[in-house]
Every structure is written in structure tokens, then in C-alpha cells.
Amino acid sequence: MDRALTIKSKEALELIKNGTADNHPCSRLVHCIRECINRCWNVDLQHVYREANRAADLMAKLSHSIPEGLQSFDAPHAELGSILSSDLSGLLLPRLKLHIIFI
């Protein structure tokens, strides 16, 4: 079974690919993820910038303001609706890079 896992944190991606020391604060979580990946699956791990996955990023932010547990929604959050519309229209957002030059 093929799976794709996109991760917006390069650090998290490296931890998952390379593993962690037992005393690392995320070692248990990383171990569980690696255990799932090592099952009979073909998993492709990829880094994705936050801007490329705005819907998932917004949903993660919204999760801090709702009760724990399974949530069901009749319609997407107002902000999520505009993000999904942008995705459907093919709107691309450039990744802003700030270069500072001291003279």
C-alpha cells in the first residue's frame, strides 16, 4: 500500500527519517511514526512549506480553540472556505524570503 506523508517541519522530517536518541523529548512519538512507516507500506516522506498546505495549517491552528475529541462540521470554517477556493482556482502564493544586506 502506497502512502505519502508531507511534513512542514524540516526538523521533524529529519527526526522521522533518521530516528532519535532515547532521551529526546519526541523519541516516543518518532518511534511510533517510524513503526507505522516500517509496516508493509511504501511511504514517501516529503517536506512541504506551510504556504503550500494552508488548509491543513489553518485546521491545525483552529484545533487549539475547539474541545478535544472528534469534531463534525456542517460547513468549512469561513477562512478555510476562502483557502479552498484559492486552491481550486490554482492561485499560487510566493514564499517570501527576506535578505538583509548590511553596508
Task: Give a short overview.
The protein has 103 residues and is an alpha+beta fold. The protein contains 4 helices and 2 strands, in the order E-H-H-E-H-H. It has a two-stranded parallel ribbon with strand order 1-2.
Give the rounded overall mean pLDDT.
79
SSE order, one letter for each helix or strand: EHHEHH
- What can be said about the biggest beta sheet? 2 strands, parallel
The number of distinct structural domains comes to: 2
The count of helical stretches stands at 4
Report the principal-axis shape: globular
| Secondary structure category | alpha+beta
Rg of Cα set: 18 Å
- The count of strands amounts to 2
Major sheet: order of its strands? Answer: 1-2
Low-confidence stretches: none
Strand content: 5-15%
What's the end-to-end separation, in Å? 55 Å
GO molecular function: nucleic acid binding; RNA-DNA hybrid ribonuclease activity
Protein name: Heat shock 70 kDa protein
Domain RNase H type-1: 9-62
Keywords: Stress response
Structural descriptors:
single chain; 103 residues; alpha+beta; 2 domains; two-stranded parallel sheet; 4 helices; 12% strand; RNaseH_domain; nucleic acid binding; stress response
Describe the structure.
This protein has 103 residues and is α+β, with helices and mostly antiparallel strands. The chain folds into two domains: 2-47, no CATH class; 51-89, no CATH class. Helices cover 40% and strands 12% of the residues. The protein contains four helices and two strands. It has helices at 10-18, 27-37, 54-62, 78-89; strands at 2-7, 42-47. It has a two-stranded parallel sheet with strand order 1-2. Helix 3 packs antiparallel against helix 4. The longest helix is centred in the last third of the chain and has 12 residues, at 78-89. It is globular, with a radius of gyration of 18 Å.
